[in-house]
Specification:
Layout: H1 2-12, H2 20-58, H3 60-66, H4 70-74
Length: about 80
Amino acid sequence: MSQSSTTSLNSSFQSTEISTEFVEWLTNEKADAERHQRRIFKATLMIAFAIVLFLLKEQSEWVAGLLNLDAYAAG
């Protein structure tokens, strides 16, 4: 219901009613949001990589057993 009212509000705007400053500001905000999302994604990947490295270092026997690598180490 709110979507239909939003659609009707958006369709009522004419392109001349939106200032160029607002369009420029909105474009800059979108670019900032995309950069922020990329930074969050990179940070999440770095944390996941650090967790994997920690597990490999601290729990190497468990990881080797999980991957069935203990047979290769014995032979």
